[in-house]
Amino acid sequence: MLVFFIVTACVTILSGILGMVFMPDVRFGYEAFLSPPIFGFLSALSGVATKSRKELSVGQMLFREFLQLLLIEVMVFGVNYVFGTTFEWELSVTLAIGIAIIFVVVYAVLWLNDQRSAMAFNAKLVEFQKNQEV
After folding, report:
1. pLDDT digit string (tens) for 88-131?
2. Burial letters for 45-72: b for 16+ Cβ neighbours within 10 Å, e otherwise?
3. Contacts for 75 with CB less than 8 Å, ≥ 6 apart
4. Is 36 in contact with 8 (CB distance < 8 Å)?
5. With 0-12 CB in 10 A as exposed, 13-18 as middle and 19+ as buried, what is 120?
6. CA–centroid distance for 18 within its chain
7. Which side of the chain, N or C, has fewer Cβ within a 10 Å radius?
8. Residue among 91, 100, 89, 96 nearest 66 (CA)
9. What is the rounded distance in angstroms from the CA atom of residue 21 to the CA atom of residue 30?
10. What are the pLDDT digits (tens) for 33-85?
11. Which of 60, 80, 112 is closest to 72 using CA atoms?
């Protein structure tokens, strides 16, 4: 769930920055306020790609995360298209690469945090086991 919040916030910020750079004269109406919640809702739905009732291998999980990334990319471009926003190819490529970078960085940071937590937990477990032997 944390991934969805971080990715959604970062993609929304990226879209705003790229819009200011590539289309500085474009202004939106009040319907623009609807895009972040729509992105958030659809990003949460894309999390279905990584759900499984059984434990997945690393390869299976990486494939599902790649599928989730593709779903997020399609969702971002689809919502923009529905709202009438079309992009030149330079902006489309920049946005797609930016979304992919955000996705990978978020997952990498969360993985590193999980690794740190697991190492701390294992160290406490070893300490507990040593105290039990005495």
Report:
1. 888 889 989 998 998 899 889 888 999 999 999 999 999 999 88
2. ebbebeeeeeeeeeeeeeebbeebbebb
3. 39, 42, 43, 46
4. yes
5. exposed
6. 18
7. C
8. 100
9. 21
10. 777 777 777 777 777 777 788 888 989 989 998 998 898 888 888 887 887 77
11. 80
How far CA 33 is from CA of 30, 38, 42, 48, 96, in Å, comes to 6, 9, 15, 25, 22
For CA atoms 15, 16, 17, 22, the dihedral sign is: positive
How would DSSP label each residue in 95-110? HHHHHHHHHHHHHHHH
With tokens 């920049």, the residue in question is 94
CB atoms near residue 76 (< 10 Å): 23
- How far, in Å, CA of 117 to CA of 115, rounded? 5
**Residue type, position 27, single letter:** R
